[in-house]
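Posted in: Protein Modeling Q&A

I'm a second-year student putting together a small comparison for a lab meeting, and my supervisor asked me to include a predicted structure for ROK family transcriptional regulator. I've never done this before, so apologies if this is the wrong subforum. The sequence is pasted below exactly as I got it from our records. If anyone can share the structure token output, I'd also love a short note on what stands out.
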Amino acid sequence: MSDIKPIYLQKVKQQNMANILQTIWEHEAISRVELVELTGLTSGTITNLTQELIQWGLIRESETSQGSVGRRRVMLKYHTDRHIIIGLDISRTTFEIVMTDLMGRVMKSIEGNITGISAPEQVLDLIEPHIQSMIAYANLKGLPVLGLGVSIPGPMDKVNGHLLSPPNFPGWEGYPIKDVLVKRFGLKVFIEDDARASALAERWFGLGRKSQDLVFVTMGMGIGSGVVSKGELVVGSNGLFGQVGHMTLVPKGSVCACGNEGCWETLGSIPGILRRWSGGDTIDAFFHAVHQGDKLANECLQETLYYLESALITLFNIYDPDVIILGGKLYPYLSMYLPEVKAHVKSRVYAFAQERLRIEPSSFGTSQNAIGAVALVFGNLLKGPLQVLTQ
Ligand SMILES: [Zn+2]
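Accepted answer (user: helix_wrangler)
Welcome! Here is the predicted structure, written out as tokens:
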């Protein structure tokens, strides 16, 4: 028994630290007395563990005056600029790397084009010098890098860190990306598919501060979502939870890559829109035609908005989130129609829920996935601080 006890104690310590870190995150600034009340931990445990977290450089003390008599009271806050997090987003045509502080505030960002490069090693060769220079900067400043978060088209085998069979992403099937990145950079590596990473960006750094139940819908070459319920990302038993692009909107419609027919993705993604329009081969050309008043393009747009509204109503009825957030490469083209979409969705949901229904644009625009990769590291830190902090 004697050799089991320390592991058990270490686990308890980590859980208690996680509890403290999450409570500070929720309140932004909090006193030790309030921590005792809110976490249920003893004041001795709070004193010891907050001291340790201060030594790690994760939190700091700050004095605030309290009440009319101006009595000083010590508050605990995140120490945002003592660590670096690196986020990497690899899409089918581009990559983006961001270096941020602990709270996901971008200090440096780099984007590049990888169109036509299908060998993962070649893509990583392009990316590597940028990440190495960020690591060098962190070393120079004496700031530990907490980890490298990665957002990439799914689906993936997260246990082994392999990509499964991402559609339209040749060369990456079965690629052991996690092991390769660990070997290249010597950092802790965390990987998530792009839709879920986007949801995590909102969970930790965006609208999730006020909402524990959110759905992030990303629309681009495909349509996917990340679902956060009670503050936790939901993945399902096959990792398919939130595959909203594959809900049937047209019975017996076109066959989809997933095996189903009439999926939203076959209708409302960029390729889906272009296939239905058949008047050109880029989304820019499509919206140009729309704005020129082209009749067929406008009919196709109205249909696209109707599919979007129908899908959002179904999402709202199934998941009952506080907020549905829209993003992805297609969203900027659709943003001007958002008020109309919201009004139609509201008119088609339960009357008592109409006032509560929120549909919002993504908080981080084109950097949503990369910030999501950073949020993935941050979320792991809050869940298992010792695992992330110790090498
Ligand atoms: Zn499908």
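A couple of things worth pointing out for your meeting: The chain is about 45% helix and 20% strand. The mean pLDDT is 93.
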